[in-house]
């Protein structure tokens, strides 16, 4: 009898190796290799699997889009691109406790409310725990079916009868009995997910898979599955804050980078109708180091607050730390301020946070980050009715940003009255939106008396603190 060969598979990224490695060369994960039996070579002849039978002209294939099923949760439908597509497989990832199970139980409720039949396969929690959660959500318990199961053959068997929606929570608990290795190992996750995906495609049932990611942001499982599924969504948020942001990273049926904003309440995840208001709700009045900027999240403009803290550093190399903003971008802006505005930052720590658990990836927030840093440096608050936007170049020039009109409309809607940004572009919107433009073409102009943003122009010298003006 042929000896079965063992190979090793990284549970983070699926890399194969003939020997177990301490650290994965592909994804740098430590101790991530699981043993598995190498599959025998399949006895399939080369060439087209079915000799081309079953091939269709594109024109003969029915268009699927009309059949989208809304989940009943507006913010989720937005991220999905208008609802679920029959047979589509969606992976919902996020850290434990962020609210994945809660959201999917609400999806099941939405389906049941429309007269559809959802099955919730629970491997993490017992059926009784699921019921408790549903009660907590104030749900009508009659329309939802639960299956506490982790063995793939039994899940498939149950799932093969007519369901309108299938939720599997989570992929890390599933097991294919023929495969060696515990639930959660790379081979188990991959095989379980492919079996379920195949079933979803065959039956046309929309399938949701839950995948946990670890605290360090490394994705045990979900990364292995990204190519297998149609849509990858991440639910993000901090434990001690109610805001949850749902992002799409891959979507075969819609735009990526679309976001949905939710709030964790005592009765599940609530949709946030006015995210800008939520992100600005804790903005301290008259505090130095705070600036508001309109950011585009997908197609939607949202106002976010940026806070900066500049303080003397005890370290030979001062810190540049961020939460929700790119640390390299902040270091670069600090260097531009140092060089072009002669703001002494080389002996200061600079901390920048985007409040409310949000994250900014757009360079359009550069000028607002710079304004928050300057404001903190001089302990001089920015006007409360001001928004700041613009990209900052290495020469200190303030560059234009895209979709200005939509951003400004959101600022006006939220009651802001002044906008500081690229001079050339703001001239064009003069008078529109009822926002008074404060045009700047260089970052240094923001500090000048003409802009009038800082109560006392820093250049005028502010005793001991003003040595950085210029
Ligand atoms: P959960 O959906 O279990 O997270 P995940 O499936 O991503 O691990 O959510 C867990 C947290 O949410 C838990 O700490 C309790 C809290 N929660 C609420 O605040 N309100 C609710 O209505 C529910 C159901 C949970
Ligand atoms: Mg859960």
Q: What is the CATH class name of the largest domain? A: Alpha Beta
* Radius of gyration over all CA atoms, rounded: 27 Å
Alpha-beta classification: alpha/beta
The portion of residues assigned to helices is 10-25%
How many domains? The number is 3
Shape: globular
Question: How would you name the CATH homologous superfamily of the largest domain?
Answer: P-loop containing nucleotide triphosphate hydrolases
Characterize the structure shown.
With 470 residues, the chain is of the alpha/beta class. The protein contains 11 helices and 21 strands. The strands form 5 sheets. A 9-stranded mixed beta sheet has the order 6-5-7-8-4-9-10-11-12, with helices on both faces. A 4-stranded mixed beta sheet has the order 13-14-16-15. The chain has a 3-stranded antiparallel beta sheet with strand order 2-1-3, with no helix packed on it. Helix 8 (327-340) packs across helix 9. The protein is globular. Thymidine-5'-diphosphate binds at residues 94, 96-102, 133, 136-137, 264, 266-268. Residues 94, 96-102, 133, 136-137, 264, 266-268 line the site of thymidine-5'-diphosphate (TYD).
List keywords for this structure.
about 475 residues, alpha/beta, Rossmann fold, Ribosomal Protein S5, domain 2, nine-stranded mixed β-sheet, four-stranded mixed β-sheet, about 25% strand, binds thymidine-5'-diphosphate, binds magnesium ion
